[in-house]
Amino acid sequence: LYICMNKKGKLIAKSNGKGKDCVFTEIVLENNYTALQNAKYEGWYMAFTRKGRPRKGSKTRQHQREVHFMKRLPRGHHTTEQSLRFEFLN
């Protein structure tokens, strides 16, 4: 199943995700969170309330907390030591 957005901004599931309503553009925000903007309905974002319920895309804006997502590595996936090192610039 694919997560899609209908014309009212409601998140729905579809078995065929080939339409633009099922495509979300990943936007990295200034605060390093990620927002997912719908390709068909520009300015509408995937969002969930604190209780985990989906919000209508038509009621979302990029600055809202419900729109901000954080990437996590899958369970059992370890980062290499090299990626944990900081590089200092003079």
TrEMBL record:
Region feature Disordered, mapped onto this chain: 52-90
Biased composition (Basic residues): 52-62
Upper taxonomic lineage: Eukaryota, Metazoa, Chordata, Craniata, Vertebrata
Transmembrane segments: none
Protein name per its UniProtKB record: Fibroblast growth factor
Family of this protein: Belongs to the heparin-binding growth factors family.
InterPro entries the record matches: Fibroblast_GF_fam (IPR002209), IL1/FGF (IPR008996)
PROSITE patterns: HBGF_FGF (PS00247)
A Pfam family per the record: FGF
Record has Membrane as a keyword: no
Record keywords, A-Z: Growth factor
Domain of life from the UniProt record: Eukaryota
GO MF, any single term: growth factor activity
Protein's organism: Mustela putorius furo
